[in-house]
Amino acid sequence: GIQVEQSPPDLILQEGANSTLRCNFSDSVNNLQWFHQNPWGQLINLFYIPSGTKQNGRLSATTVATERYSLLYISSSQTTDSGVYFCAVERWVGDDKIIFGKGTRLHILP
Amino acid sequence: ETGVTQTPRHLVMGMTNKKSLKCEQHLGHNAMYWYKQSAKKPLELMFVYNFKEQTENNSVPSRFSPECPNSSHLFLHLHTLQPEDSALYLCASSQDQGRYEQYFGPGTRLTVT
Description:
heterodimer; A: mainly beta; five-stranded antiparallel β-sheet; 0% helix; B: 0% helix
């Protein structure tokens, strides 16, 4: 089945820093989403981005479907950005359904 | 607040108990999902319902039994669970299956003793 790899697995940054999180996937996909899971377990959808670039405030994402990767950019980090960031891909054919990566754990220091 | 609620938020049950998890969405969506999140493992899709019909069962053991009486409600009935079933169970919904972003509930933290 399709493999989803996220990097780095862990990231510790000072408040105000910028970061780039990466999601690689091993086969073509129809959907890609980025989620943020806060320390209390709530998952929030950040971007639905099967291709192209989107921006939402301090966050932006780019998916290059032909090269099988997506990037999530966080600028001017705040402590509330701490948590785990997941990439999830979906294929509409075959046995692969919705596959999540293992996540990047981000800790922003005040 | 994502528009998806789950109850209970925490549940402790013995291996011989029967319990149910409830999920409700107030978004007018047609697809609903159950996921399992275990420690140190990626989120695993368990079941998908689209327009009240089960469209995916990701090889889930029969001790987990889903029910979707309408597009707004989703249940997960639990019986004779094992300690390794302890996990965070997450419900999600989307406008339709496969082509729209998913909105997650806060999850139920299940401990099987």
